[in-house]
Amino acid sequence: MQISFKDRVYSNELKNFVNKEDKENTENKEILIVGWVQETRDFGNLKFIVLRDREGTVQICMKKKKTPDEILDKVKDLTKESVVYIRGNLSINAKAPNGYEIFPAEMNIISIANVPLPLDPSDKAEKADVTANIDTRLDNRFLDIRKKDVAAIFKLRSRVIDAGRKFLSSNKFIEIHSPKIISSASEGGTELFPIAYFDKEAFLAQSPQLYKQMLMAGGFDRVFETATYFRAESHDTTRHLNEITAFDCEMSFIDSENDVMDIIEGLMKTILKEAKDSEEAKILNKEISIPEKFPRLSYDECLQYLNEKNITIEWGGDIDTKCERIMGEVVKDKFGSELFFITKYPLKIKPFYTAPENFNANDKYSRAFDLEYKGVEISSGGQRVHIYDLLAERIKRCNLNPENFKFYLDAFKYGMPPHGGFGLGIERILMQMLDTTVREVILFPRDRHRLTP
Ligand code: AMO
Known about the structure:
Elements: H1 23-28, E1 30-43, E2 46-53, E3 56-63, H2 69-77, E4 83-92, E5 100-111, H3 126-130, H4 134-139, H5 141-144, H6 148-170, E6 174-175, E7 181-182, E8 194-197, E9 200-204, H7 209-217, E10 222-230, E11 243-252, H8 257-276, H9 279-283, E12 296-298, H10 299-308, H11 321-335, E13 339-343, E14 368-373, E15 376-383, H12 388-397, H13 406-409, E16 419-425, H14 426-433
Parallel strand pairs: 6-10, 12-13
Antiparallel strand pairs: 1-2, 1-4, 2-3, 4-5, 7-9, 8-9, 10-11, 11-16, 13-14, 14-15, 15-16
Helix pairs in contact: 6-8
Bound molecules: aspartyl-adenosine-5'-monophosphate.
């Protein structure tokens, strides 16, 4: 039999065809639905399939005499999670989930699922299987994402990226794609993945940093990328990955790094609002709060607050994971915000492209900042050096060879406006928003131990 999937509807669209005032018309409407068999129930003369697709489930009802024998026969062979095609009619039934069910006129088994399943994705199994070993879940991600809660995370991720992209486009940012095969480090030499590139030395890109800056010289005064970063960090934590996705932005003609922070603040508020009002937040039972203003505290102020908690960081030292968490609590208590910026970092701990506070290589402070969400860094950025001589000097002082950056430095010789930007990790946003770990919010994580699937 010729099967066409063209006219199929998702389970959540079925309600559009239900008209309780006009039962007859509803029942005459023919429906095509495809999905996975979540469950079958056999009560002799009465049989049910709970059919699940991307958007939900629907009950398929079969009765002796009413349903063709051929279908009743096929149901016996159906294993859980097999894919079936059903053509049938809607029927209003107050006892059915959502108040309606489908009586099939034709059923085709498209693909039979093997038994046993390595992971049970049905709603009923959810409680048990969500606590199943994360490795088993990731090894069988195709089954894992059939679970409603897990699917909701990735629908939310798509929503967040879409909202972010729309915000940036409406703020005059042009979407770009920078190379992912590069010849020199932008974020420190120790974190590079070397690759074989004919007879040349090459690496996977750590970030679009050098390229987005070069575009500022090109006059593309606002650019963004939903970028992939590759980081050869050997961290084995709940917040580090070796392949990351980020909103990566750069903008020209800024007065200071504050203009860049204004953009991130707007971007994050848009994302949080979109997530807060989403269907997925309901499914995941998440309350998402949106601060009115993200406080901006200097590095020195943070050291002071930490000092009040009896934690001493020597000036120029890193505000480590534990201190970030404590600062997250301090800011939440004092300012009522889960998001805040740490500004004016010491110049000596920031990359070569970071602008010194007063554009002097000997400055103590920089124009770099981080954005923290619930005590975890989700973004870093700042104003950049746009002056050729100062940049060459900064490269040298960071113990790097300006020769290796010729292609980049050249862009600063022929008209480069003042500019700044940021990288905002998409996994970090989602993991903090949902109070979970980084592996839960990326489909196929690349981490210290995982290269498949
Ligand atoms: P940075 O190295 O801080 O800055 O990266 C920017 C953001 O990317 C995310 N991120 C990570 N997420 C998960 N696992 C990792 N291993 C990881 N590394 C980074 C974080 C981080 O804040 N070029 C600069 C940005 C800029 O100044 O424009 C950069 O790459 O959310």
